[in-house]
């Protein structure tokens, strides 16, 4: 556990999956957490309830990325929930949950509309969220962006999604340089296949076996694996780490297994 007592955090896409695990971990470490969600208010309520049952503090904030005024709506809810406190930790975790857009994205089938949708949610929203949140952010704050193994391993059916994650990594490095003067660190955590709602393909035992076989640590990732990496970057222990990508894939696609 790291000590985040007295700190505040915003986790986007915290109604489920990794975002929920990140919100629970940061709240468990003592932070007051804004649980952002897009459409699933019930799931966001469950995240908040789980945090409160464990003795933590959280509140929900709704904003659907990719719609008009998305960032403004989020900031309004965030500011109200923080009640005058500044923001210490911003985790850009939400990403396009539209399976059609994420998966049907091979170069021969991708439509301009799908491209625009996935970029609006995965790149434009996080960038302008950072811009809007900066006046609320404390010096010495933390920004953590959630990328994907898809920037390191080429997945032809996800071209636009993978491109958004590449853009997010460039954004992280650039922001790290821009915000260093205020002591704000900006880093990226890059998960591989992780058991969440978005990865229904992982329910297929054959796919699980193949992916497990390509992973040095020999299993599929769990949301808590990612949350723990984020908690490190959010903590004081990571004060000298900025502009980095932490590969949290369990060593996926590192190289041949027959040689070990
Ligand atoms: N799971 C994996 O294997 C994997 C691998 C590599 C990287 N990642 C990355 O890890 C992050 C978390 O993924 P996950 O698997 O935990 O996803 P998930 O379980 O599908 O959860 C996605 C979250 O993002 C929110 N969201 C989606 N579209 C949104 C929109 N238009 N506006 C606002 N919020 C929106 C959802 O909110 P609502 O449901 O409330 O709308 C939900 O809270 C993402 O950045 C993803 O790209 C995942």
From TrEMBL:
Gene3D superfamilies, sorted: NAD(P)-binding Rossmann-like Domain
Any one GO molecular-function label of the UniProt entry: oxidoreductase activity
Origin superkingdom: Bacteria
This protein's UniProt keywords: Oxidoreductase
PROSITE patterns referenced in this protein's UniProt entry, alphabetically: ADH_SHORT (PS00061)
InterPro entries, per the entry: NAD(P)-bd_dom_sf, Sc_DH/Rdtase_CS, SDR_fam
SUPFAM superfamilies: NAD(P)-binding Rossmann-fold domains
Family: Belongs to the short-chain dehydrogenases/reductases (SDR) family.
Protein name: NAD(P)-dependent dehydrogenase, short-chain alcohol dehydrogenase family
Organism of this sequence: Nonomuraea solani
């Amino acid at each position: 556990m790291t000590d985040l007592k007295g700190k505040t955090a915003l986790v986007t896409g915290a109604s489920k999956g990794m975002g929920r695990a990140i919100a629970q971990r940061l709240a468990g470490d003592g932070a007051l957490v804004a649980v952002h969600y897009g459409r699933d208010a019930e799931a966001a309520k469950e995240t908040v309830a789980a945090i409160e049952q464990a003795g933590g503090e959280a509140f929900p904030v709704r904003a659907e990325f990719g719609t008009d005024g998305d960032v403004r709506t989020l900031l309004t809810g965030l500011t109200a929930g923080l009640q005058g406190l500044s923001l210490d930790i911003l985790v850009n975790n939400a990403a396009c949950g539209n399976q059609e857009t994420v998966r049907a994205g091979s170069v021969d089938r991708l439509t301009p509309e799908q491209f625009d949708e996935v970029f609006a949610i995965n790149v434009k929203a996080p960038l302008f969220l950072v811009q809007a949140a900066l006046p609320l952010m404390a010096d010495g704050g933390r920004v953590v962006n959630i990328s994907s193994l898809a920037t390191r391993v080429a997945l032809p059916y996800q071209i636009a999604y993978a491109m958004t994650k590449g853009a997010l990594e460039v954004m992280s490095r650039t922001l790290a340089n821009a915000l260093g003067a205020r002591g704000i660190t900006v880093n990226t955590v890059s998960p591989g296949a992780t058991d969440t709602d978005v990865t229904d393909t992982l329910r297929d035992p054959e796919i699980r076996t193949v992916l497990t076989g390509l992973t040095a640590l020999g299993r599929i990732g769990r949301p808590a694996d990612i949350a723990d990496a984020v908690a490190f970057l959010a903590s004081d222990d990571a004060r000298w780490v900025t502009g980095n990508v932490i590969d949290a894939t369990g060593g996926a696609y590192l190289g041949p297994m027959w040689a070990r």
